[in-house]
Amino acid sequence: MQKVYKPAVGITMGDPNGIGPEVVFKALCCAEVQSICRPVVFGSSEILEQAKEIVGMDAEYELQQCGDFRLSDLDPGSVREQSGKASLRCIEAAVKSAMQDETDCIVTAPISKEAIH
To answer: Among 84, 50, 49, which Cα is nearest to 63's?
Structure first.
């Protein structure tokens, strides 16, 4: 029996102060997503752990730690330069990974363009 190739999909966590981390974790918990790809999440382990608790489910994924954004930095629903920088660092790391053929493609979670500028 031949092993089925599953592409490595780089997924950014999005803006930590927004819905991005929860959206990512809900997608990771989808059986269809797990069956067609190998998720590689670019983000903060603390933020993703909190998203896991909010969603109330667990999922398998590879984590590529990006930056130093922590739970103590969170200000949910607010536009903050620090969270904008965190989401941008994750996007840059995911793009670099794809350009180096470590991942096959990238998917970006919701970000705040205002926080990035």
So the answer is: 49
75 band by pLDDT with thresholds 50, 70 and 90: confident
Handedness of CA 11, 47, 79, 27 (dihedral sign): positive
Owning domain of residue 43 = 8-116
In a domain, 26, yes or no: yes
Q: In this structure, what is the dihedral angle of CA atoms 83, 79, 11, 34, given to the nearest 10 degrees?
A: 120
- Strand duo 8-12 + 62-65: pairing: unpaired
Contacts (Cβ under 8 Å, ≥6 apart) of 37: 6, 7, 8, 9
The total number of structural domains that make up the chain: 1
Task: Please name which of 99, 42, 49 lies closest in space to residue 71, comparing C-alpha atoms.
Answer: 49
CATH number of the domain at 112, please.
3.40.50
| Residue spans of alpha helices (H) in the chain | 20-28, 31-36, 45-55, 81-99, 113-116
- pLDDT attached to residue 26: 96
